[in-house]
Design brief:
Elements: H1 6-13, E1 22-25, E2 28-31, H2 32-44, E3 48-51, E4 59-61, E5 66-69, H3 78-95, H4 102-120, H5 137-154
Parallel strand pairs: 3-5
Antiparallel strand pairs: 1-2, 4-5
Helix pairs in contact: 1-2, 1-3, 2-3, 3-4, 4-5
The structure holds zinc ion.
């Protein structure tokens, strides 16, 4: 497998599910129009898409407006697109020059990522894995994902969310 290309990111941003997302946080709006902006910046080459070498991680670098993609099958399934969209939220925050802490910036990306995932598949669930060693990084990540999903569902997002 090869890493996702500029075209894969543009395709992920064309997913109509993104137009059902409206997350307003302290003056920052994450919605379909924002994703169109990111898409336009990528098409114009103002945000450069670089093919990375990791199967698990993608990155957005605000310093040089570069999005580095992860590895995966093309066309990307929604659960691979969700990580590209996470990075595109970082890009959107950068485009808006919205200033916040690194942690809040990251949380907004995870919240959007999980909203997109649960709207894309009625069966999508993060479940608590109690067999992971207590206190381990894996256990903490597992608890984190479950908490984000609970939060996102609490905002009203589900497979049947229709948006505006
Ligand atoms: Zn991130």
């Amino acid at each position: 497998m090869a890493a996702y290309t500029k075209q894969d990111v543009i395709s992920a941003l064309a997913d109509p599910v993104l137009h059902r997302i409206t997350i307003l946080f302290d003056g920052l709006l994450i919605n379909g129009a924002g994703f169109v902006m990111v898409q336009n910046e990528i098409i114009a080459g103002n945000i450069e898409v670089v093919q990375g070498s990791s199967s698990a991680n993608a990155y957005y670098h605000s310093g040089d407006d570069t999005l580095t993609t992860q590895d995966g099958p093309s066309p990307a399934p929604y659960w691979k697109k969700s990580l590209l969209i996470h990075e595109c939220v970082h890009a959107l925050i950068d485009i808006y020059k919205y200033t916040t802490t690194g942690l809040t910036n990251e949380l907004l990306c995870y919240i959007t990522q999980v909203a997109y995932e649960i709207m894309s598949d009625s069966a999508y669930r993060y479940s608590l894995n109690t067999s992971l060693p207590a206190g381990s990084n894996d256990a903490k990540w597992n608890q984190f994902w479950v908490a984000i999903e609970n939060y996102v569902r609490g905002l009203g997002y589900s497979f049947s969310t229709t948006g505006e």
